[in-house]
Amino acid sequence: MSTSTPELELDCRGLLCPLPVIELARRLGDVPVGATIAVVATDAAARVDVPAWCRMREQEYVGEETADDGVPRYVVRRLS
């Protein structure tokens, strides 16, 4: 798991499926190839949705961390 600071962190607390993944897709182009984006989401479906989106979009799912407030934080590396 990467412990480096992501280039961009998306606050998706309170958003329900599929909105965290839609926000990730919308903002992917905001970071350069090779950089990471963290999606902080309270929706339990994000634990499955973010890795699945990465597989479908050929991006790297780095893993899950925990935000300072205990909310899951899903880290994605832009590959293309």
Write a structural description:
By secondary structure, the protein is an alpha+beta fold. The protein has one domain (8-77): Translation Initiation Factor IF3 (2-Layer Sandwich). The chain has 2 helices and 4 strands; from the N terminus they run E-H-E-H-E-E. The protein has helices at 19-27, 46-57; strands at residues 8-11, 36-40, 60-66, 72-77.
Features:
about 80 residues; 2 helices; single chain; four-stranded mixed beta sheet; Translation Initiation Factor IF3; about 25% helix; 4 strands; alpha+beta
Topology:
Layout: E1 8-11, H1 19-27, E2 36-40, H2 46-57, E3 60-66, E4 72-77
Parallel strand pairs: 1-2
Antiparallel strand pairs: 2-4, 3-4
